[in-house]
UniProtKB/TrEMBL annotation:
Species of provenance: Rehmannia glutinosa
Top-level lineage group: Eukaryota
Signal sequence bounds: 1-26
Keywords: Leucine-rich repeat, Membrane, Repeat, Signal, Transmembrane, Transmembrane helix
Domain called Protein kinase: residue spans: 350-620
Subcellular location as annotated: Membrane
Keyword check for Signal: yes
InterPro entries: At_inactive_RLKs, Kinase-like_dom_sf, Leu-rich_rpt, LRR_dom_sf, LRR_N_plant-typ, Prot_kinase_dom, Ser-Thr/Tyr_kinase_cat_dom
Region (Disordered): 294-325, 620-659
Predominant cellular place of this UniProt entry's protein: membrane
Record-given protein name: Protein kinase domain-containing protein
PANTHER family (UniProt xref): OS01G0607900 PROTEIN, OS05G0588300 PROTEIN
Pfam families reported for this sequence: LRR_1, LRR_8, LRRNT_2, PK_Tyr_Ser-Thr
Composition bias type Basic and acidic residues, residue spans: 630-644
Length: 659
């Protein structure tokens, strides 16, 4: 019995000893293998002696968790590591929290399997010679707080997906070769950020504007935020420098004061009344002052009254979206209802912009805002209208709603800048579709679609004339935009003539569309719109640009060219060769030609009104009999001489067609 007991005790002691040993020697075997594999493949200084027969948790630079079961921290700064970080080594330290390999001579890319270090909170790789693009594997380490890859040789763009690192508090990318724009990086806790000494360009996103200028210094071409303002879509030198300074500070001041004012108001109603009385006085003062010297800086008191006014009515956001053109808010985009846009002038100024075209009234830009919205911004030049007139006209234009009219979404008026904001139409203009890269493998605009453009543009114009009582004034194929889904036309650029003085010299670009009387009177009318629309119809039919020199003789315009060809009984030659492939459409083409020619009558009174034009196009005999080419010449010539009227509806018999 005693023997047995002794035996049991002995076994127990033995087991305890074994267990104790096991505990003392316990170490992260797999992590140890990974570390050894790393060190064996990377040249390093001698002092980094990792003794294989000792626990890895006691090695220089290695720290484990409390139970020595895995490596938590690996810190090897300045130990002369040279060359690439081998794959399948450090990437296996699955529990790693902190990795520092800074100040070595590591080079090449960061291995993809770093993406397995899911628990990593900090990574310090600065001061090496690492290269390649921004390491994609690091983007997957969503628990990262600190990411420092500064002073390396990284190139390419900084990816927007850095935003996946939502816990980031420090991002250090300075002293590399990063290029392109800085994406809008906005982890909520980000408090350290540096991208200085790279080759970045473009505007600094608002989310990063809080960081000091030194965080952005020495790049290719950065602007905005703490740096001098950008001129995103304002390349012309004239007025751009004054725009930004007048706009942004005043907005900021307003915001600050408006919260102050809200607090003040909530203190006591009596104070509110007093403030309101003061506000009225200041309002009057401001009005007077504004009239005397419009450029003067707003004194704080006046800014305060404005803040009170804001707080008294509603939130300051309503000022932006309220659509009221009534004087109060200078330097703000005034939105009309609809469109669902929510951006402000600052966003617009920061947008990346591309010139779409220079027109007779200004330059149009395609502006892509940071949140991805795309709009068209038209920057008007040589506006003669005063603020009040301008706003009144905008009110008229902004309230026009029709599916074939491009809506005006917002406008901005200041002494130096007049901007209009429209929807962006990715399908482009009729002009581009009709004349762009002709011949070289493009799909020609077929007859069905040309007819659709004609009728939808006529609907838009008739709506402008009848419901809006607005003269378009600038009808041309580059102002007929097409909807991507169905090639329905949208007329754009309408109703701007009243903003300009009559003495503005007639622009050559729209000469081809301009009614003859406008050259003398310099006044656009409903009837001059009809003329321009007629030219547009002829352009659809002939495929010839009205201002193009290829009409044969120099100085002849499209209507006269068409008239001369028709008069000489070559009607079939008038039509675009691209339309000749479609059969059974000759009759329709001739009908539309008649309508177009009625519109371009020299005498304004002989032109039909727009709603009549629309009705004629809508009433056209669609899908008529199968005429042959011979039949076309025959019937068309008859029709154009006014001989056979039976195909056109009674009221549609256009005046002024017969030569
Ligand atoms: C490694 O550690 C063992 C045991 O602690 C020791 O005997 C040996 O000398 C060490 N080797 C080196 C190279 O330091
Ligand atoms: C973990 O390893 C270190 C270094 O070898 C050692 O000093 C420590 O006692 C170990 N801790 C445990 C709980 O085994
Ligand atoms: C950085 O990369 C460039 C081009 O890849 C190379 O010319 C340069 O020597 C590299 N610099 C360092 C410090 O490795
Ligand atoms: C970032 O996160 C989004 C959404 O979670 C995911 O679709 C995307 O693939 C991530 N990007 C990267 C580079 O991991
Ligand atoms: C930034 O630079 C790239 C070329 O490095 C260029 O393509 C791009 O247009 C530039 N962008 C801006 C906004 O200057
Ligand atoms: C950014 O890094 C540069 C270069 O290392 C340094 O001079 C500058 O002070 C840093 N700025 C900030 C805000 O950290």
């Amino acid at each position: 019995m005693a023997v047995i007991l002794k035996c049991v005790a002995w076994v127990a002691v033995l087991m305890a000893t074994l267990l104790f040993r096991e505990r003392v020697n316990s170490e992260p075997t797999q992590d140890k293998q990974a570390l050894l594999a790393f060190l064996s493949q990377v040249p390093h200084e001698q002092r980094l002696r990792w003794n294989q027969s000792e626990s890895a948790c006691g090695w220089v630079g290695v720290e484990c968790d409390a139970t020595n079961s895995s490596v938590y921290y690996l810190r090897l700064p300045g130990v002369g590591l040279v060359g690439q970080i081998p794959a399948n080594t450090l990437g296996r330290l699955s529990q790693l929290r902190v990795l520092s390999l800074r100040s070595n001579r590591l080079s090449g890319p960061i291995p993809p399997d770093f993406s397995q270090l899911k628990l990593l909170r900090s990574i310090y790789l600065q001061d090496n010679q690492l290269s390649g693009e921004f390491p994609p594997s690091l983007i997957e380490l969503t628990r990262l707080n600190r990411l420092d890859i500064s002073s390396n040789n990284f190139t390419g763009p900084i990816p927007f997906s850095v935003n996946n690192l939502t816990h980031l508090t420090g991002l250090f990318l300075e002293n590399n070769g990063f290029t392109g724009k800085i994406p809008s990086i906005a982890p909520p806790g980000l408090d350290h950020f540096n991208v200085s000494n790279n080759r970045l360009n473009g505007s600094i996103p608002s989310a990063l504007a809080k960081f000091p200028a030194s965080a952005f210094a020495n790049n290719l071409d950065l602007c905005g935020g703490p740096l001098p303002p950008c001129n995103p879509f304002f390349p012309s030198p004239a007025s751009s420098p004054t725009l930004q300074p007048t706009v942004i500070p005043s907005r900021k001041r307003n915001r600050k004061l408006s919260t102050g004012a809200i607090v003040g108001i909530s203190i006591a109603g009596g104070v509110l009344i007093l403030v309101l009385i003061l506000a009225v006085i200041f309002f009057i003062l401001r009005r007077r002052k504004k009239r005397e010297s419009p450029k003067v800086q707003k004194p704080p008191a006046i800014a305060a009254t404005r803040a009170v006014g804001e707080a008294g009515t509603s939130s300051s956001k309503d000022d932006i979206t309220g659509g009221s053109a009534e004087g109060g808010e200078r330097n703000k985009l005034i939105f009309f209802h609809g469109g669902g846009y929510s951006f402000d002038l600052e966003d617009l100024l920061r947008a990346s912009a591309e010139v779409l075209g220079k027109g007779s009234v200004g330059t149009s830009y395609k502006a892509v805002l940071e949140e991805g919205t795309t709009v068209v911004v038209k920057r008007l030049k040589d506006v003669a209208a005063g603020k009040k007139e301008f706003e009144q006209q905008m009110e008229v234009l902004g309230n026009i709603k029709h599916q074939n009219v491009l809506p005006l979404r917002a406008f901005y008026y200041s002494k130096d800048e007049k901007l209009l904001v429209y929807d962006y139409m990715p399908a482009g203009s009729l002009s581009a579709l009709l004349h762009g890269s002709r011949g070289s493998g493009r799909t020609p605009l077929d007859w069905e679609n040309r007819l659709r453009v004609a009728v939808s543009a006529a609907r838009g114009l008739a709506h402008l004339h009848v419901s809006g009582k607005v003269v378009h004034g600038n009808i041309k194929s580059s102002n007929i935009l097409l909807r991507e889904e169905n090639l329905d036309a949208c007329v754009s650029d309408f109703g701007l003539n009243p903003l300009f003085s009559n003495s503005t010299p007639p622009n050559h670009r729209i000469m081809g569309y301009r009614a003859p009387e406008v050259l003398e009177t310099r006044k656009v009318t409903f009837k001059s719109d009809v003329y321009s629309f007629g030219v547009l119809v002829l352009e659809l039919l002939t495929g010839k640009a009205p201002n193009q020199a290829s009409l044969g003789e120099e100085g002849i315009d499209l209507p006269r060219w068409v008239q001369s060809v028709v008069r000489e009984e070559w009607t079939a030659e008038v039509f675009d060769v691209e339309l000749m492939r479609y059969h059974n459409v000759e009759e329709e083409m001739v009908q539309l030609l008649q309508i177009g020619m009625a519109c371009v009558a020299t005498v304004p009174d002989q032109r039909p009104v727009m709603q009549e034009v629309l009705r004629m196009i809508e009433d056209m005999n669609r899908g008529g009999g199968g005429e042959t080419d011979d039949g076309l010449r025959q019937s068309s010539d008859d029709a154009l001489r006014g001989g056979s009227d039976d195909q056109t509806p009674p009221r549609a018999s256009p005046p002024g067609v017969t030569p």
